[in-house]
Amino acid sequence: MALLVGVLGVVAACAVGVETVASGAPAAAPPGRPCALRAAPGVEMSEGFPATRSGEYARSTGVLRALTLFIDFPDAPAKESAKARYDEFFPFVQQWYDRASYGRLRYEPVPVLRWFRMPHPFSAYGITRGYGWPVHRAMMRDLAAVVGRTVDFRGYDLVNVIATPNAGPPADRTVLSVTWTGGNAATTESGTHLDRVSVIYGHDQAGPRVLAHENGHILGLPDLYAVDDFARTDTLAGQWDTMSLDWGLQGEPLAWHKWRLGWLTDAQVACVSRPGTREVALSPLEVSGGRKAVIVPFGRTTAYVVEARRALGNDGQACTEGVLIYRVRTDVPSGQGPVQIMDAHPRTAACTYSSSAFNSLNDAPYGVGSTFRTRGLTVRVLGRNAEGGWTVRVGRG
């Protein structure tokens, strides 16, 4: 397992997934779905489509039940009610997922509105930025023991553990929130494995979106920021997906993520897998219905995606509108840059009020009359309609 964590005092998140796929070359996309690139074996939280549904991750359509517990510590007792802490995240997270999934995922938090006191001080657990599996396992075993039979863990798709915000340093100094999926940290008295857990600390700069980000890992989505060189995030996905910078202006999940999660149907994706030219009318990603993306695969591990973005819904604070183009690689692990936005304005930044850095991709979308070119691919934005959609011409050599 590899732990992924933000640095430089910028709010991010971390996730661990246990990779169970054998190593080897990626399989070809399934017949009839040439753009649905397979997950690359041995790559942590690969951006590809799995050959079979993995029990490592939670369901991404239908009803998602999230048991939500609250913890404090002997050296950091809660100073507010559990209900007040709960209200920091809900109903925002339900509404966020409802909009992002076009109603295909119904998020149901089930809170236990009381504080569970951990048996050891916060300082004794060794909870620091990037803390490892032994710390998480010790915490979950203590939590299971403290909760005992007062909570029945059965029947839930994930567990949110929300700590009192006065435990540990503020989030603008260091990032502690973490998600673990795929490894059983503890077994409760009801026999439930704690193997899909998001733990939230502090008052995060992202507000409730930090939980949307962390739970995104439990659905199988990787971190899009650069774990080893956080500043490089500004050349990768920037603020264009909550799995990159969860406090960013543009928080809507990318079309590629929505397709992987089953929030977009195959009919809503135009797959250009053969040479030729095709004109496609794109409906804004933030609204339901219509064609949402053009996908152009190159080989078994790389695809370019074209989608339309507007300042609506989860993108209500978006800095710019237009046609967003990015490259997806299924052979790049979480936290190493599996998605890279193509910047239509590489010499400028926009909306610098959003942060002291990480603004160069805010004006990345292509506008009417602009063209993106790379080897074997040309995308030209032809026009914009009254409904806010864009028409693009995609040429593949």
3D structure, described in words:
The protein has 397 residues and is an alpha/beta fold. Strand 13 and strand 14 form a beta hairpin. The protein has helices spanning 82-87, 92-100, 122-125, 133-147, 209-218, 255-260; strands at 14-17, 62-72, 105-117, 158-163, 178-181, 196-200, 269-271, 276-282, 293-298, 302-309, 322-329, 339-341, 371-374, 377-384, 390-396. It has a 6-stranded mixed β-sheet. A 5-stranded mixed β-sheet has the order 7-9-10-11-12. Helix content is 13%, strand content 24%. The two termini are 40 Å apart.
Spatial gap, N to C terminus: 40 Å
CA radius of gyration:
21 Å
Tell me, what's the shape? globular
Total DSSP E strands: 15
The biggest beta sheet reads:
6 strands, mixed
Q: Mean of the pLDDT scores? A: 92
β-strand amount = 15-25%
Poorly predicted sequence stretches spanning 5 or more consecutive residues: 1-13, 17-22
User: Which structural class is indicated by helix and strand composition?
Assistant: alpha/beta
Portion in helices? 10-25%
Figure out the total of helices.
Answer: 6
Record the strand order, biggest sheet: 1-5-6-4-2-3
Helix and strand run: EEHHEHHEEEHHEEEEEEEEE
